[in-house]
Specification:
The chain has a single domain, classed as Nuclear Transport Factor 2, Chain: A (Roll). The mean pLDDT is 93. It has four helices and six strands. It has a six-stranded mixed beta sheet. It is globular. The termini are far apart. The chain is α+β, with helices and mostly antiparallel strands.
Length: 126
């Protein structure tokens, strides 16, 4: 039995969040578009490398999940808050995020990430 789009996204986010990048990549289409506040990435390894200079650790608390279909695509949107530790060792929490995924043929073909990390100033706290 194939996974629902919501199950697919939840499992992908868990694997990516735990930096099991090879496993997380298995949920992505080979031409997946990954767009984050820092730009567009060709893959999870590139994204993880770019993020390591932003913070020591980060996690998500999911508050909402929405799923809708349009033609052959299913869109999954999750919102919530980020928590973690910045590169100066200062903990942060309560930073808004929104992730939007497009699922086609059982794979993630697009991931768009929005968050308020830069605007909040938590990455610069010392």
């Amino acid at each position: 039995m194939s996974k629902s789009p919501l199950e697919l996204v939840r499992e992908y986010l868990t694997a990516a969040g735990e930096r099991r990048l090879e496993e997380a990549t298995s949920y992505l289409d080979s031409d997946a578009v990954l767009i984050f506040p820092q730009g567009r990435f060709e893959g999870l390894d590139e994204m993880a490398a770019a993020m390591k200079d932003r913070y020591r650790s980060i996690g998500k608390t999911h508050e909402t999940w929405d799923v809708t279909s349009s033609g052959a695509d299913t869109v999954v949107i999750t919102t919530g808050s980020l928590h973690g530790v910045n590169n100066h060792g200062i903990a942060f929490e309560g930073i808004r995020f929104c992730d939007r995924f497009v699922i086609r043929d059982g794979l993630i073909v697009e991931q768009h990430v929005w968050n308020d990390l830069a605007e909040s100033g938590v990455l610069d706290l010392r």
